[in-house]
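Note on ligand handling. Small-molecule inputs were canonicalized before submission; formal charges were left as drawn, and no protonation-state enumeration was performed. Where a ligand contained multiple stereocentres, the stereochemistry in the source SMILES was retained. For zinc ion, this procedure yielded the string shown in the input block below.
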Amino acid sequence: MAMTRSIIAAFIYTALMTAAFAASDKQQPPPGAFAGAPPQYTRFSAAELQRGFMALAFGSDLRIGAKPRGIRRFDHPIVARVVASGSVDRSAAMAGIVEDYAGKVPGLHLSLATGATPADIEIQLIDERNFKAALRAAFGDQVTKTFVARTNPQCMTSVKSSAEGEILRSVSFIIVDKGDGVFFDCAYHEMLHALGLSNHDQRNQWTTLNQSRMVGYLSVYDRALLTALYDPRLAPGMTATDARAILPRVVKDLGLASTGARP
Ligand SMILES: [Zn+2]
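Structure output:
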């Protein structure tokens, strides 16, 4: 009987240890998030970050044409431009979102365009009724029809990259006239796509790139994935096999995963 008891005790102990290293430290959304933004977990294990990275940095369910190979991201400082044409002026809010990314992920070297500087990311702020027309103007009838039929998108980003995996230019369309929730969720979600996290993961409960979730701020989880993506060791074009091999070292060196110690 004593033997049985010690086996049970060992089991419980293991379960508790696992829990301690899973997503934890739930916190309220950051100041400035829209009313109704969800709380977030702020500490993740290396395995949770690596799994999300592999799911989101490779492939895209919006892909048209040749299958993109490997990691896609910018390989130089990034300039973003906000182009507002919607009936609700959210230019300042969008500029603030770009600055939020720039400040929280320094590896992006992201800034807002000034004057006539050519932009790497163009962010089009539009009304919902102009969404399809804007897509048609940008991509043509056929591609628009395919996109809309396949995904029934509310907002959208097109990422053009070289055969080597370097992003050449991204264009995002963000709806501004359907309330704060739609705007902030779209804006933060599409920025992740524009920067190279091209995929979605409906089973991942922490990322903004789960289309069943509405987040509307840069979560600790997505920030960690983006920070890893822009580490110099994760180069554009890198295969999934190579990325999987180097990712644990990158996550560890950048201190992205919780180690069990309180911050
Ligand atoms: Zn998306």
